[in-house]
Write a structure and sequence with these properties.
Blueprint (H helix, E strand, L loop, with lengths): L1 H15 L13 E5 L6 E9 L4 E10 L2 E13 L2 E8 L6 E9 L2 E5 L8 E7 L2 E7 L4 E8 L2
Length: 148
């Protein structure tokens, strides 16, 4: 009897667990504008879908008419897992962050070998998107509102 109960518990836990690969990231889609920026600065981030296994994002910060920061992002599904690749303007290769946690409307990506950041967390709540970029000692919060 104990064996049957254990088998039933194991099967139910496996069925209820959703693999990282089963998630989609459609909640990222859209054009976003950062709130709480420095005076005379505007930061934008946009995400679109490219097939079933890739999302492409672009981020830039404008100071007046000048672009002071720019990076491109790819969220790629590879077999049974996701990876976030980030390439800053002027860099030839992307920094890779495998996703370590995926839930509804949120994910965490980590790369302990990268100097900063080592961890990136995205979360969507209604018309808001937040990204926490952190390292061993520092953490930056980026809050965005969906643009019309």
């Amino acid at each position: 009897m104990k064996r049957i109960i254990l088998i039933c518990l194991l099967i139910s836990s496996l069925v209820s667990c959703k693999r990282v690969s089963d998630q989609n990231m459609d909640w990222l889609l859209g054009d976003w504008q950062r709130t709480h920026t420095k005076e005379n600065q505007m930061t934008y981030e946009d995400w679109h879908k490219s097939g079933d296994s890739m999302y492409i994002g672009n981020s830039c910060t404008l100071e007046g008419a000048d672009t002071v920061w720019q990076e491109s992002m790819q969220l790629i599904k590879i077999r049974d897992s996701w990876r976030l690749d980030i390439t800053a303007k002027g860099e030839e290769t992307a920094t890779r962050f495998p996703l370590t946690k995926v839930d509804k409307n949120t994910f965490t990506a980590e790369n302990a070998l990268n100097p900063f950041p080592t961890r990136i967390e995205y979360k969507r709540t209604a018309d808001n998107l937040s990204a926490i970029v952190s390292g061993k000692e520092d953490s930056l919060l980026f809050e965005f509102r969906k643009r019309e």
